[in-house]
C-alpha cells in the first residue's frame, strides 16, 4: 500500500520545506488558496516529490474530514503534519483561536480516526506557547475549545489581543499532545509537537516588519546566534516522522536555537 503524508500549510514556509523531504509515497498538501497550492505542487514535483493538493480550511471540521477521506483514498496515512496557521498579525483574536486552536483539535479528531498503525501526527506549536503558564482558569478551555462558549471566554481572557490568542493556542497544542497520546497509542500511532523559535518564513517576515526592533533583539540573544530557517524545522519533522522516533510520543520538542532560555529576559526588558 502507498504511504500518504498529509501536510497542512504545505503551500508555504515550514510546511512546504517539510513536504520536500517526503519522497517515499504521496504528499498531500493543503491550504485555503488554490493558486499557492498549484505552484507549491509544481515546485515539489520538480524536486521528485509525488505531490498532490486539496484545498481545505482547518478551522472547519467538515473540510478537514474531507481532506482525510481523500488522503485515505490514496493509501495509508503515515504522517500528518499540521503546519497551517496564522500568527495573529492582521487577524482578530477570535479568528486566531479558530484557526490555530480549533483547527488543531479538528486535525486531531480526524487523524485519530484515519491514521495508520505506525503513523504520527506532528503539530507545529511555538516557542511562544511556552510563555503561557499552566493555569486552571484556562487550561480546560484550551484543551476543549469546541465546548459551548469556550472561544468567547478565551477571547475575554486574552483581552481580545491576537498575539496573546496565538500564544495561548500554541500552549494548547502542547497540552493536547499530552492529552491525546494514549488515544493515538490505542491505534498504534504517535502524536508529538514541535515548538519552533523564529523561523524566516513569509509569516515571520510579516511579523518582522511590525516588530523590527524586537526581532533584532531576539537574534542577538539567541544562543546559536542566528534566527531559524524552515529547513531547521524540516529536519526535526523528518526525524519525528521516522521509525527512529518510534518511542517518542506525547511530548513537545523545542527547535529554537535556545531562544526560549532568553525569553524571560527579553520580556522583562520590553
Ligand atoms: N515562522 C515562524 O517563525 C514560526 C515560529 C513558531 C511557530 N510557527 C508556526 O509554524 C506554522 C507554519 O508557519 P509558517 O511560518 O510556515 O507560515 P506561512 O508561511 O504563513 O504558512 C502558513 C500556511 O498555513 C496555511 N493556512 C493558514 N490558515 C489556514 C487555514 N485556516 N486552513 C488551512 N491552511 C491554512 C497557509 O495557506 P493559506 O493562507 O492559503 O490557507 C500557508 O500554507 C504555523 O502554525 C506557525 O504558527 C512559525
Explain what this protein looks like in three dimensions.
This protein is of the alpha/beta class. Helices cover 49% and strands 16% of the residues. The protein contains 11 helices and 7 strands. It has helices at 13-19, 34-46, 61-74, 93-114, 139-143, 150-157, 162-186, 202-210, 212-221, 230-241, 263-269; strands at residues 3-8, 26-31, 50-55, 76-82, 120-124, 190-196, 251-255. The protein has a 7-stranded parallel sheet, sandwiched between helices. Helix 3 (61-74) runs parallel beside helix 4 (93-114) and helix 4 crosses helix 6. The protein is globular, with a radius of gyration of 18 Å. NADP nicotinamide-adenine-dinucleotide phosphate binds next to helix 1, helix 4 and helix 8.
Brief summary of the model shown:
The protein is of the alpha/beta class. Helix content is 49%, strand content 16%.
Report the radius of gyration as a whole number of Å: 18 Å
Total strands: 7
The percentage of residues in β strands lies in 15-25%
Distinct helical segment count:
11
Task: Set down the secondary structure blueprint.
Layout: E1 3-8, H1 13-19, E2 26-31, H2 34-46, E3 50-55, H3 61-74, E4 76-82, H4 93-114, E5 120-124, H5 139-143, H6 150-157, H7 162-186, E6 190-196, H8 202-210, H9 212-221, H10 230-241, E7 251-255, H11 263-269
Parallel strand pairs: 1-2, 1-4, 2-3, 4-5, 5-6, 6-7
Helix pairs in contact: 1-10, 3-4, 4-6, 4-7, 8-9
Bound molecules: NADP nicotinamide-adenine-dinucleotide phosphate.
Amino acid at each position: 500500500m502507498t504511504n500518504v503524508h498529509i501536510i497542512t500549510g504545505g503551500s508555504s514556509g515550514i510546511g512546504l520545506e517539510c513536504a520536500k523531504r517526503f519522497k517515499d509515497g504521496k504528499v498531500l498538501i493543503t491550504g485555503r488558496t488554490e493558486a499557492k497550492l498549484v505552484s507549491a505542487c509544481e515546485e515539489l514535483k520538480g524536486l521528485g516529490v509525488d505531490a498532490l493538493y486539496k484545498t481545505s480550511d482547518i478551522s472547519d471540521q467538515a473540510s478537514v474530514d474531507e481532506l482525510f477521506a481523500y488522503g485515505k483514498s490514496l493509501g495509508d496515512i503515515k504522517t500528518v503534519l499540521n503546519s497551517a496557521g496564522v500568527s495573529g498579525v492582521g487577524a482578530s483574536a477570535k479568528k486566531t483561536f479558530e484557526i490555530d486552536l480549533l483547527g488543531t483539535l479538528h486535525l486531531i479528531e480526524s487523524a485519530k480516526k484515519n491514521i495508520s498503525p505506525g503513523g504520527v501526527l506532528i503539530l507545529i506549536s511555538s516557542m511562544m506557547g511556552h510563555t503561557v503558564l499552566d493555569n486552571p482558569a484556562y487550561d480546560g478551555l484550551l484543551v476543549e475549545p469546541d465546548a459551548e462558549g469556550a472561544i468567547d471566554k478565551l477571547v475575554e481572557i486574552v483581552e481580545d489581543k491576537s498575539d496573546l490568542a496565538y500564544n495561548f493556542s500554541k500552549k494548547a497544542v502542547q497540552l493536547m499532545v499530552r492529552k491525546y497520546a494514549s488515544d493515538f497509542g490505542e491505534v498504534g500511532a504517535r502524536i508529538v509537537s514541535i515548538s519552533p523559535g523564529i523561523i524566516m518564513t513569509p509569516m515571520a517576515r510579516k511579523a518582522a516588519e511590525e516588530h523590527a526592533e524586537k526581532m533584532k533583539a531576539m537574534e542577538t540573544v539567541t544562543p546559536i546566534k542566528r534566527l531559524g530557517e524552515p529547513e531547521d524545522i524540516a529536519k526535526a519533522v523528518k526525524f519525528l516522522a521516522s521509525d527512529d522516533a518510534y518511542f517518542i510520543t506525547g511530548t513537545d520538542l523545542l527547535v529554537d536555537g535556545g531562544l526560549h532560555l532568553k525569553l524571560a529576559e527579553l520580556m522583562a526588558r520590553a
